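Customer escalation, tier 2.

The customer says the design service returned an amino acid string that "doesn't look like it belongs to this structure." They asked us to rerun it and document both sides in this ticket. The original structure tokens are below, unchanged.
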């Protein structure tokens, strides 16, 4: 089957992306605020107990995030002037009103991240998925007071019709296709793909690759330095409160954020603002090209 969702486009042949203030890198934090069901396997630290119901070892590890970890990370974001782009399960929006209240007070950006991180929508029929997405987005809008503009699927899952259905519901970008350092247009009217990362992602770095806190800081620095040298790039840092919100990792999060936000030539922003800026600049450039042809 051919990929009809997007076309191949080598980055070296594109017009450069210009960020506000002449910044060379647009940086955002993708903060995963998730809910997990207690009666089915989900993201696990120890696979030996993952099939058990209940599974206190892994469920408790995940549940540490909304109870403790996110509040510790929130202090770091405040200190460094970061408004996270919150990847929000609609079940989390219902169940953790204290988090929603704190995020609204800080003007966080809210993206839809499915219903919860135990239920994936892969293989849903179009009508079933349309109803599912409608409910997810309406729940998040009611809780946050903001209709989501962006989408990240639980475990980065989609069906082939997901982007088109999201466009029908008024969303304008997805993060699931982690194949670029710049935004680009999907072959779906009105829909962008924005950079996200499964590499610069605390869940993979800490729990799958067993990297240390100092490793994490160095990786963030190396990623930023390379993207800054190339220019016109997006750097996404994907974080989970049950991972980076652990006490022994907090100082390394602070060190990494301090390096990025205090560096010249960085636009510290949200994924919403990146999508809006790219759309405005792309449309202006496209219109200019059409008028000149």
């Amino acid at each position: 089957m051919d990929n009809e969702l997007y076309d191949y486009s080598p980055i070296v042949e594109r017009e450069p992306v210009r960020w506000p203030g002449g910044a060379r890198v647009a940086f955002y934090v993708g903060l995963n605020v998730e809910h997990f069901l207690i009666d089915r396997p989900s993201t696990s630290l120890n696979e030996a107990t993952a099939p058990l119901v209940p599974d206190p070892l892994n469920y408790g590890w995940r549940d540490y995030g909304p109870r403790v970890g996110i509040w510790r990370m929130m202090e770091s974001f405040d200190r460094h002037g970061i408004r996270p782009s919150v990847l929000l399960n609609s079940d989390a929006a219902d169940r953790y009103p204290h988090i929603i209240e704190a995020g609204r007070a800080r003007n966080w950006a809210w993206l839809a991240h499915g219903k919860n991180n135990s239920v994936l929508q892969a293989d849903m029929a179009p009508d079933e998925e349309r109803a599912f997405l409608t409910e997810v987005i309406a729940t998040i809008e009611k809780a946050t007071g903001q209709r989501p503009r962006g989408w990240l699927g639980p475990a980065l899952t989609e069906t082939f019709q997901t982007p088109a259905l999201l466009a029908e519901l008024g969303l304008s970008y997805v993060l699931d296709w982690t194949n670029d350092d710049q935004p680009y247009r999907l072959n779906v009217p009105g829909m962008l793909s924005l950079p996200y990362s499964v590499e610069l992602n605390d869940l993979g770095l800490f729990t799958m690759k067993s990297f240390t806190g100092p490793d994490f800081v160095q990786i963030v620095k190396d990623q930023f330095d390379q993207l800054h040298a190339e220019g016109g790039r997006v750097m996404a840092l994907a974080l989970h409160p049950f991972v980076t919100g652990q006490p022994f990792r907090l100082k390394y999060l602070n060190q990494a954020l301090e390096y990025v936000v205090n560096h010249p030539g960085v636009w510290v922003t949200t994924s919403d603002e990146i999508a809006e800026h790219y759309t405005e600049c792309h449309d202006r450039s496209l219109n200019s090209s059409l008028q000149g042809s």
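Tier 2 assessment: The sequence is consistent with the input. The first strand starts at residue 25 and ends at 33. Residues 20-292 form a domain with the TIM Barrel fold (CATH 3.20.20.370). Sent an explanation to the customer and offered a walkthrough call.
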